[in-house]
Design goal:
This protein has eleven helices and twelve strands. With 324 residues, the chain is an alpha+beta fold.
């Protein structure tokens, strides 16, 4: 079905680009093989309605892909369609060495995602459009070569859902939970931060913005038919949100006891360290939203001294994990 639709759209695009005068829906229906086979003579009024719906969808799909389709009404009031070549011709593409290198680097970055093929094909088209022959966009431009790994199966369906503004359902396991739970989300944006992919969106069940780490999504991402219920913000700050929830944005301090030789990430963030003896140290660390979830990961190697609210949050999380 996907191949048939692609062929149908291609034939429709070629018809609209190849005509010198506007073509009516009737003429397009009689000229494109896929329409003839599906809505040929003898289909009746039901066939006319089905063709009209398919034609409108195909026309919208081509416009979404970037084809400029004009709607023209003749003297008899009949509506026709065409895609003028001058309106659908890209201007000449000229790239200098630095711009070509940036595009080559971007293609390398996506090597582990399905976008790799698209990126490679785009560079080949740029070469055909006049990219200087002495510029190699794949050439290494430094000792370090960046990569953005995409191992999570949820990446592609979520990327498409973000693009199409389509709500999704998936099972999500929080860091402190023993079992995943279903989340109903209106996806806004995906972003990679410190080697992990995150999804920002509107959590319908909680009625608030949430950020989800893709590696904690279990099972298949399912689509929902209904549209978005919450407005999409103009700017989605995934990294800032994750940093805040990870306790990296802090306006106060917490005092903890840490077992000697353990918790090196905590030690790296400590503003003060004091040896207590008996295999324990006392640390003062920045305290922000999400610090309780982070401290729980260190298990029995960490004891929260103050503030009392942080200690209570850590104890609650540990009890929840123990109950399973």
């Amino acid at each position: 079905m996907a191949i048939a639709k692609a062929e149908r759209l291609m034939n429709l695009a070629l018809c609209l680009l190849g005509t010198r005068r506007p073509l009516s829906k009737r003429e397009l229906r009689e000229s494109i093989e896929a329409y003839v086979e599906a809505f040929g003579p003898g289909k009746g009024a039901a066939g006319d309605d089905s063709f009209s719906r398919m034609f409108e969808r195909d026309k919208d799909d081509l416009r979404e892909l970037g084809l400029v389709i004009e709607t023209v009404e003749n003297l008899d009031g009949e509506v026709g369609y065409l895609a003028r070549r001058d309106s659908n011709r890209l201007p000449p593409i000229t790239l200098d060495a630095e711009e070509a290198a940036a595009l080559g680097l971007a293609a390398k970055v996506w090597q582990q995602a399905r976008l790799a093929g698209a990126a490679s094909g785009a560079l080949q088209k740029l070469r055909a459009a006049g990219l200087p022959e002495d510029v190699d966009p794949y050439e290494a431009h430094g000792a370090l070569e960046p990569r953005i790994p995409v191992h999570e199966a949820a990446f592609e369906p979520l990327m498409l859902a973000c693009r199409d503004r389509r709500p999704v359902i998936f099972d999500y396991r929080k860091a402190t939970a023993a079992h995943p739970e279903a989340r109903h989300v209106e996806p806004w944006a995906l972003e990679c931060w410190r080697g992990h992919w995150y999804l920002a969106g509107w959590d319908r069940d909680r009625g608030a913005e949430r950020v989800f780490r893709l590696s904690r999504i279990t099972g298949r991402v399912r689509s929902r038919g209904s549209g978005f219920t919450a407005p999409v913000p103009d700017v989605v700050t995934v990294r800032e949100t994750v940093a805040t929830w990870a306790g990296e944005v802090a306006d106060r301090s917490a005092l903890i006891r840490l077992r000697s030789g353990a918790g090196y990430p905590l030690r790296a963030k400590a503003t003060k360290v004091r040896e207590l003896g008996d295999g324990w140290d006392e640390l003062e660390i920045p305290y922000g939203h999400g610090l309780d979830a982070w401290l729980v990961e260190f298990g029995p190697d960490v004891v929260v001294l103050e503030p009392a609210e942080l200690r209570a949050d850590v104890v609650d999380r540990l009890r929840a994990v123990a109950k399973g």
